[in-house]
UniProtKB/TrEMBL annotation, chain A:
<keyword id="KW-0679">Respiratory chain</keyword>
<dbReference type="InterPro" id="IPR045187">
    <property type="entry name" value="CcO_II"/>
</dbReference>
<keyword id="KW-0186">Copper</keyword>
<dbReference type="InterPro" id="IPR002429">
    <property type="entry name" value="CcO_II-like_C"/>
</dbReference>
<protein>
    <recommendedName>
        <fullName>Cytochrome c oxidase subunit 2</fullName>
        <ecNumber>7.1.1.9</ecNumber>
    </recommendedName>
</protein>
<keyword id="KW-1133">Transmembrane helix</keyword>
<comment type="function">
    <text>Subunits I and II form the functional core of the enzyme complex. Electrons originating in cytochrome c are transferred via heme a and Cu(A) to the binuclear center formed by heme a3 and Cu(B).</text>
</comment>
<keyword id="KW-0812">Transmembrane</keyword>
<dbReference type="GO" id="GO:0004129">
    <property type="term" value="F:cytochrome-c oxidase activity"/>
</dbReference>
TrEMBL record, chain B:
<keyword id="KW-0349">Heme</keyword>
<keyword id="KW-0479">Metal-binding</keyword>
<keyword id="KW-0812">Transmembrane</keyword>
<keyword id="KW-1133">Transmembrane helix</keyword>
<dbReference type="GO" id="GO:0015990">
    <property type="term" value="P:electron transport coupled proton transport"/>
</dbReference>
<keyword id="KW-0472">Membrane</keyword>
<keyword id="KW-0249">Electron transport</keyword>
<feature type="transmembrane region" description="Helical">
    <location>
        <begin position="187"/>
        <end position="213"/>
    </location>
</feature>
<feature type="transmembrane region" description="Helical">
    <location>
        <begin position="421"/>
        <end position="448"/>
    </location>
</feature>
Amino acid sequence: MYGFLIGVGVLLIFSIIWMVYRIQTLVSVVKGSDKKIASGSNKVNAILFIVFLLGGGILMFWYSIKEFDNYQLPVASEHGVITDSLFWWSMGVTGIVFLITHILLFIFPYKYQYSEKRKASFYPDNNKLEIIWTVVPAIVLAGLVISGWVAWSDITAPAPENAHTVEIMGYQFAWEVRYPGKDQVLGDYDYRLISATNSHGVDFSDKNSVDDFPSPVVVIPKGEPVLFKIRARDVLHSVFAPHMRLKMDAVPGMPTRFWFVPTKTTAEMREETGNPDFNYEIACTEICGRGHFSMRKVIEVVEPEAYQKWYAEQRSFIQMNPALATGVPADAKEVAEVQLTEK
Amino acid sequence: MSTASVANHDAAHDHHDHEHHDNFVTKYIFSQDHKMIAKQYLVTGMFWALIGGLLSILFRLQLGFPDMDMSFLRPILGGWIDEAGKLDPTFYLALVTMHGTIMVFFVLTAGLSGTFSNFLIPLQIGARDMASGFMNMISYWLFFISGVIMFISLFLKTGPAAGGWVVYPPLSALEQAIPGSGLGMTLWLVAMTFFIASSLMGGINYITTVINLRTKGMSFSKLPLTIWAFFLTAVIGLLSFPVLFAAALLLVFDRSFGTSFYLSDIYIGGEALPNTGGSPVLYQHLFWFLGHPEVYIVLLPALGITSEVIATNSRKPIFGYKAMIISLLGITVLSFVVWAHHMFVSGMNPFLGSIFMFLTLIIAVPSAVKVFNYLTTLWRGNLIFTPAMLFSIGLVSFFISGGLTGIFLGNSAIDIQLHDTYFVVAHFHLVMGSASFFGMIAGVYHWFPKMFGRMMDAKLGYVHFWITFVGVYMVFFPMHYIGIAGFPRRYYSWTNFEFANMYTDLNMFVSVAAIITFGAQFIFLFNFFYSMYRGRKASENPWRSNTLEWTTPIEPGHGNWPGEIPAVYRWPYDYSKPGAEEDFIPQTVPLSATPESNLPHEQELVKVELEIMKEEEEVLVSNETSH
């Protein structure tokens, strides 16, 4: 019944609109306004541009200021502070250009709306002006590019020697984490070794892999360089840690990396944001299939001492599953056995 | 069908040397008339715009109202709505993929370039038709076949391609990774192959026609900016589409013939694949070698149309005609050397990232010049707000808003955070999506009288413009905030993450705005089809414009001009020239006929012009007598 009534209502509204449309067309024919170069609508449109300029401008400023703390994620890495400042510098520069050009773009239609009494000025070119507005943007952009380039070079420079290595591997649809263990060297891996018990495909015949250990969360120390070694097992993924201002694709067959220095522990961030449940997160930003939107991993930033303690307490792959040690060569076997007895 | 031939016979054709016998099939289906082909492109483009728009509404429903019971969509979507009335997450990805593919290729490439390059190139340069009408016809029909295949793929049980419109392997190569990479992806690749062939044929035709078939006096320095834009667009397409074809071909090999161009070290579905040594990044390089120029393929025609519409309706010459051409040329060349800015965080060598950052920000300069020139054209003009003019001003606004955010994204250091977030979505939907779309709509409003001999209703046009203009900003402006907050693209829902577990209100707002904006397009559709039959009859030159197309009869027949093709004596932007009586002087008016308004350097050209005209006359006379 309601469906029927709604249908009738919609039909009525459409027929009214239709009538209004026909009547205004006929009226305009009678008035001869269709013969005029610019009808009364010209003025209305000109005014609407001003209305849009004011309305849109107010809305933009109001919302940008009101929501600032919401959309501006707190930053928790050294390079993030730099890229954020680059971002806001760019925002300042482009914001000014945005405002000026839009004010002109919407005021001109009002100011220079058609009048029969006036004639447009014939102003086909002015080389001086063209040169000015080629050179000025070029200089401004050069400034932005160079500062961006300096930051980019620093961020992508090789990681410091003392960086803590963490391997992050993406697969459909989760992340797995591997630490290099006591020797600080990640063991080899081969995708053909992947199995139900060895999801990383770690090659345990490599001595370095014997003490490698997994972790359900990414634990990293505050204030010390951390190197993410990133790889993917099946399709492209992308490691995105928004608070760290960190993003790097995970590519099957081509390991990638990203190093950074976290500046705030999770606890400190909980205090800063006033949210006792706050967690640093990793999300996937490269489309990877059905579960693309659910590849979450938590990063826990702790004080360096706590990190060392936590690190020493972890159990290696082999300790968790001694069966993995079957392929271990003789010389590495001792290390493995030591590990096994240590627990 | 051919029995309709007599009824459809067009009297205008009788003027030609050889008589055409158009029946229904040759006139409306397998037409070789560039104007009809243009209309075919336009209507097909509109059909695809509706489909593409509808798909976006479906996924906006999911994003804006994640708790909504979508059972009511089951009649259309069937099994893609599950028992609980929820949209299937895989199909969500298919929706965004097909929305992107359709909008970029079918609507803004074929629908825009296909329509206006075909329609305007012969009319504005003074040619009877395209260089090869037959190839032009093939071009449309290849596009049509491509569309049919893509359309069929929407209805597959495993769904259409779903790896994003960029179809990055390995996701797009492995059926195990996502069901859409099965038959759906195969059809995607086949459809794109037809599409590439179609756009190459079109492009070759546009280029040849512009170079060879310009009428007497129509030098490159007298071409309207529309033609410059179409010409350079075709050049870009001709050079970059083959690379997409190469990328697609290698992908076909990887998918079907066991090669490893893009595949390496993959363990999926419980087994390790034999492929090694390939690189997914190679595909990205190849794809973006087309993908970035593609942005300009959709944008340049829109900018060309805008230049023409703004100049005409400001009653002022376009400011900096030469600077505009140089900017277009600059954009054309630079568009080929910026592709890797889509790949700053793909794992590509960071040094390459630096190079591409520099090159990318250089391309902002000619774009900025164009904006300033548009503004100066409006300055001290005598502005008439036809719907086309409104949409052109809207385009400039989008071009500024979206262009400026490009400066953030082109900066690799800033891009680390913004890459693949909604900031990018906001950026390209404004600068290439909406701007090009507005250019296309402006073109339809402006050249409708030439296409169908009738006027579109202006008032409906105003309503259409204001709802769409405000609507587009309401949809895409909020996405900047969401993007700065780090919301990733192509997410079915954000509730899994604490950092993105907000802005449900804003997303709802965006979705509502999108639905309203989409709804407003039906005003345009009504206006279009109604005016085609019942609109007011157009006059010969309704916008009092200078370019050649307005010297043809109101409804030009096959061959465009009944008699001789008019010669051209001046540039197309003599609006409001001091001394002239009217505020426009068409290109066909000789300088010698307007001594009162000629500029000093033009006065000197008059002598040359008179000599040429004298010679011409002698030739004509001798031709007459020899008959």
